[in-house]
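pipeline/complex-builder :: batch 7 item 3
reading input block
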Amino acid sequence: MAAPVLKFKNPVIRWIDYRLPIFSYLHHEAYEYPTPKNLSYWWNFGSLAGFMLVVMIATGLILAMQYTPHVDYAFDSVERIMRDVNYGWLLRYIHMNGASMFFIVVYIHIFRGLYYGSYKAPRELLWQLGVLIYLLMMATAFMGYVLPWGQMSFWGATVITNLFSAIPWVGDYIVTMLWGGFSVDNPTLNRLFVLHFLLPFVILGVVVLHIGALHRFGSNNPLGIDTKGPQDTIPFHPYYTVKDMFGLGVFMIFFAFWVFWAPNALGHPDNYIPANPLSTPEHIVPEWYYLPFYAILRSIPDKLLGVIAMGASILILFVLPWLDRAPVRAGTFRPVFKWFFWILVFDCVILMFCGKYAPEAYWTPFGGEIVDADTFTERVAELTGLSHEAALNAVGEMWGVNAASGQFGIKILRLGQLATIYYFAYFLVILPLLSIFETPKQVPLSISKPVLGGGQKVAHAAAKPMEKA
Amino acid sequence: MSLAGFGAAAVTWPMIDSLNPSQDVLALSSIEVDLSQIEVGQAVTVKWRGKPVFIRRRTPEEIKEAEDIDVATLRDPQPDQDRVQKPEWLILVGVCTHLGCVPQGQKPSEPRGQFGGWFCPCHGSEYDTSGRIRRGPAPLNLAVPTYSFESDTLVKIG
């Protein structure tokens, strides 16, 4: 930060910069900021996440000017935005789908970090700030989903606030305080609106810290090795600004597809029914980005333990840098880790799948369909000639025979439990063990060598001094 | 230092307590329900404190079923007579003790689960004809609100 003050040509900028070196600072951090020269497009998602935050704040600010946070008016005010406000439909669809886009980008960003070991020393704090941003995002997205005051809004709010009632002794008091009443009602809507407005700016603050921590040691890179000097880096501008801009263009095509062609595909039709506190919808499902955690919650049939497991599944990321002690960062050079990593990705998809369907339902992997428990039992009874009761016992808790196609079925609950076990095992068992038993491949000695000199002759590259230092 | 800490605590508490239910919310805390129109086997749902309250006029079989169960085998052991003032009238807060959904089973068309009471669609909890938890993730029985019979056909809830 104590970088020398630059000489700018523009006299006004020079005058300001002499007194407040903000332009010098920006020049250092966003222009000449030395960045590893081998970053792939997986490193595009940090700036895309920043872009999404700006989009969400901008559209959200304008939507807030048209929205009424009151149980009697909220639903209608959102419909008014959709029908009467100029371009209201566009702003709302951007904001609504923007939340999903934000999560897609952030999930890719997180998994990129997991694969390339971006959480390892000296970037632990950078990683933890990222996890904090993710937690804040989840809270903000949940609160935003409540605001239209549809059926899913109301019952989502009820279920999520009730998670706190699992806390021993004080749980019920906490829930009453969160509600400001005896159920989710007007005081609840009001405070969630206020917090939904506030938290994005808190996120913005943490993003500044995240970038501050990033710029201390610079980006990790696909080789997971430190930059050794100027020959390994290029200035951020124009090289990465232009690369990020290209990625942004591609991403915006994807974003626009959802906004213009499938604006409600990621939501639930039930949320276009006004909230009714006396009737719970048949099937409550959270938004897709919460599904894996919902599956973890449901896979443990005890209320308190389920909530603890769900919380732990995210909090475990905070201690990840100390669970994975392997010195090699990039998964590219970790032959065993690589497999477990991709299983984790697949595992999260399975969890998402389990979160979407009723836990009592059966999935027939080969028949490729989801059948509810009754239908499944019927089919088994038909095939085996057993009575309904006997078939129920035969189906048991886990496996059964799908009579229609003669194939196996697995109960969604059990599948979710297996996936939950793997999720925790990855962090608590597999990574610590790999840190001890895995033999990593030879890591290149510098970023420049494999690019310029071919990967084989890395051995004597280290001895060479830097060309310019 | 301790004085400043005391001062900070003294200011913090009003801020936290302001989030709790306000006087006007607390004032709306009791309702009266006319029971004369409810037939045996029928159930009605009324709104109390923003929550549904189930009133079910149980059939003799339902009462017998609720009373005959071995209480010790229940997850939240409670004999039926502790949950009703008059065996015919079962009055419960219609909020699942798992995560707060409204269980189904009030209307004849809705599923009542294996135990003839209520079935929660959210996470599959099943309640019996006394509103006791029998299966699924919910830890407790459906709550019994405070109520009193003003007359044979009028009940005051809250």
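note: The longest strand of chain A covers residues 407-411.
queue -> next item
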